[in-house]
Amino acid sequence: MVMRVTVQRKRYNPEMLKSGVVRVGFFEDKKYDDDLPVAQVARWNEFGTNVDHGVPPRPFMRPAVFEKKKEFTELLRSQYRQAIKDNRNTMLVLHNFGHFVVEAIRSQIDSVHTPENAPITIHGGWLGRKGKKSVYIEGKGGSKPLYDTGFMLNSVDYQAEEVKK
């Protein structure tokens, strides 16, 4: 007795193959209570400010992306192949990728420990600025750079959008 087994290949539905873009970072809808955009604070921390008593650079976005560039590329490639093989919407790949990059940036923020916060940042006090009015700085009570309330850390987000051809 001979059994014959026929395997039919799934035909991929081209409607499931979508072109898209993922943006990861800090978006305009996230603001501190004083209406200061989180994106601005993130930029100041990423690149530093070059004013008296400024913020030293504490890069977290660039290292998160550049250190994992190869891993990101391989992840996207394998996820797209699997989506095509399983006949799934490829936009789901972009959403998964967005989550992955957000977590990489958050992890990088957690790993930054230098340069340490200035004593005035930790304890608070009056900050005299050359040729300008002094300002009072609320101390954050901790020495961990890039972290006070966790608002910036939790504001890292992504947007995935389909690109129409």
Task: Summarize the topology.
Elements: E1 20-25, H1 38-47, H2 61-67, H3 69-85, H4 91-111, H5 119-123, E2 125-129, E3 132-137, H6 151-155, E4 157-162
Antiparallel strand pairs: 1-4, 2-3
**What are the low-pLDDT stretches, counting only 5+ consecutive residues below 50?**
5-9
Total DSSP E strands: 4
Form type: elongated
Total helices: the number is 6
Distance between the termini: 54 Å
Structural class: alpha+beta
Short recap of the structure:
This protein has 165 residues and is α+β, with helices and mostly antiparallel strands. The chain contains 6 helices and 4 strands; from the N terminus they run E-H-H-H-H-H-E-E-H-E.
Note down, in words, how this protein is organized.
The protein is α+β, with helices and mostly antiparallel strands and 165 residues long. The chain is 39% helix and 14% strand. It has helices spanning 38-47, 61-67, 69-85, 91-111, 119-123, 151-155; strands spanning 20-25, 125-129, 132-137, 157-162. A hairpin with a 2-residue loop joins strand 2 and strand 3. Helix 2 packs across helix 4 and helix 3 packs antiparallel against helix 4 (91-111). The longest helix is centred in the middle third of the chain and has 21 residues, at 91-111. The model is unreliable at 5-9 (pLDDT under 50).
